[in-house]
Amino acid sequence: MVSRIFRDTESTELNRRRQIDTLKVFNDNVTEIQEDVEYKVEFTSGGNNMALLVVLGPDFPLTRPVLKIRPDIVHPWVNESSEVVTAPGLINYTAHSDLGRVVHAIIREFQLRPPQLCTDIGAGASSSQQNDVNSDGRSSPLYGVMYQTSLLSSNCNYGGMSQYSVHNNAAALHLCPRGTLAFPDLAKLTLEELKKLDENVDRQDEFLLQHHPDSQKVDMSLENMLMNNEEVAKENLSKEPRLQHLITVVKKKLDVVASLKAQYESHSSEYQKQSEKYAPDNIRDNLRIATVCTDEESERVADEFLNKQLDVETFVTSYMEKRTSFYSRKTREEKLSRQLQELERAGY
């Protein structure tokens, strides 16, 4: 149990070190503020110098890192404490995520869509507030435009993230220049009309179709893609029986292959034994042994004849047979030996 605890601790430390290494691999201008705890990644967004502070808790990477942006900005991913909280990489963060990739994706978002600095908002707040309300008590078109723009742009540009209320977004965005509006036609609507538009989804769709016909093309394209996906799904389902049949056929063929493989291995083993048995060197050695045995048998027949254990006729027949076999085997053994020596000299 103790050894397992030490192994788990060591594994966590190695993973923490690897995560810090990915931070330096995927990002430039990484500065270590406190070793293994806090790092700063500097970058440029919209002409402004920014820094993303990465704070690693004691349980990291089992817990999410804390990411703070400096200076303070207005962005759907950032809360009032300038902490990045709703970036996709952070929401889905696990111990197996790459810290470097997550930080790089956040910085890339800020570079592609430069956020507005809170200092810029504060500088123009006093002058803008005086013009927000007309003499008749109705909000100016600019305020209304920014109010609705905050609603629609948060849905269009940031995937519907709404960690702030609509009014908080409006307060931050109504100070932006007119040229940055995503829907300039909203400037023609009153505050009451904008509120009704916000409360009615059907009116929002009508407004988009009327003033932004391209959105209808997008809807049609999306509908076509959904229909195509449905057709592909149906086609895939229709091929399922055929696929199951092919799977069965393949399994049977695999069984045949397994049987043939077993036979091949058995035959290969038998072939190896026979090859060793009938190898030229083995044949030569066997001939040599048989020659010696035949010579000894002929000597034994001669001794039996001298001891008068055999008659002349039996002795002659047996002795001639043994000697003939002896000389035949000896000749073949010597001839095979010469052939093998010649092959050996030739490099075979």
Structure write-up:
The chain has 348 residues and is an alpha+beta fold. It has three domains: 2-116, Roll (Ubiquitin Conjugating Enzyme); 124-199, no CATH class; 280-345. The protein is built from 13 helices and seven strands. The protein has helices at residues 2-26, 88-91, 99-112, 118-123, 125-130, 141-157, 166-173, 191-199, 201-211, 214-238, 240-277, 280-306, 312-345, and strands at 30-34, 38-45, 48-55, 66-70, 73-74, 83-84, 116-117. Helix 12 (280-306) packs antiparallel against helix 13. It is elongated, with a radius of gyration of 46 Å. The model is unreliable at 1-7 and 125-181 (pLDDT under 50).
Strand and helix layout:
Blueprint: H1 2-26, E1 30-34, E2 38-45, E3 48-55, E4 66-70, E5 73-74, E6 83-84, H2 88-91, H3 99-112, E7 116-117, H4 118-123, H5 125-130, H6 141-157, H7 166-173, H8 191-199, H9 201-211, H10 214-238, H11 240-277, H12 280-306, H13 312-345
Antiparallel strand pairs: 1-2, 2-3, 3-4, 4-6, 5-7
Helix pairs in contact: 1-3, 6-7, 6-8, 8-9, 12-13
Number of domains: 3
CATH topology type of the largest domain: Ubiquitin Conjugating Enzyme
Q: What is the C-alpha radius of gyration, as a whole number of Å?
A: 46 Å
The CATH level-2 architecture of the largest domain is identified as Roll
CATH class of the largest domain: Alpha Beta
Structure classification: alpha+beta
Features:
single chain; elongated; disordered N terminus; 5-stranded antiparallel beta sheet; 13 helices; alpha+beta; about 350 residues; Ubiquitin Conjugating Enzyme; two-stranded antiparallel sheet; 3 domains
